[in-house]
Prior knowledge:
It is a single chain. It is built from six helices and twelve strands. It is α/β, with parallel strands linked by helices. The strands form two sheets. The chain has a nine-stranded mixed β-sheet with strand order 6-5-4-7-8-9-10-11-12. It has a three-stranded mixed β-sheet with strand order 1-3-2. The termini are far apart. Mean pLDDT is 88; it is low at 2-21.
Amino acid sequence: MLVCLVAAVLLAAGVTWALYGSSWLRVEKVTASGTQVLTPEQVLTAAAVPVGAPLVSVDTDEIASRLRGRLPRIDSVDVVRSWPHGIALKVTERKPVLLIKKDAEFVEVDASGVRFDTVRQAPGGVPVLELAAEGSPSARRFDGERLLREAVGIAGSLPEAIAKETLQIKVRSYDSVVLELTKGRTVVWGSGELGEAKGRALTALLKASPKADHFDVSVPTAPAVSGS
Length: 228
């Protein structure tokens, strides 16, 4: 019995030493993957993983929190121990669904309404918001932030093919939203309600009337098209 107890203590001591005291299981390599706009180097620098530290002692939650704090473009990140010597950073970046013009730059907004970066050049396939609701009777009830959320919801509900052709989302009031598409086409969208149904209706209209320049899906069960 005593021999077994001693053996167990020695084994535990050996494991503890191997994990914390030896050079066998220490951080030697850190990798970053999943980046699109960011570079792996930016992620590695912001993560500041303590190279040389015992792998078991690395606080993965702290590294993930530090990355999201320093690089707002990161939506989520998995920090994974890769035994015996590695830390892998698997990044998911936010994707802009809407842009807000700010002087000569653009603020990127994701589908959750988070404004996560300001860029000089507008990314392709992302519509720009035009907010012109000052004279609207509903302006007191629906302020700029509320209307921004509505625009974000509309942008996020657009079918991918239509989103890529949407140049601008004009918001005049809660229930008066117009999309400006490529080739001079306009779409009366109405409010942000029934977004998926409106997207399906618009997709059908664009296929059925490819030469039309004005579409109305404000009532998706009775869409309309005009122009040629």
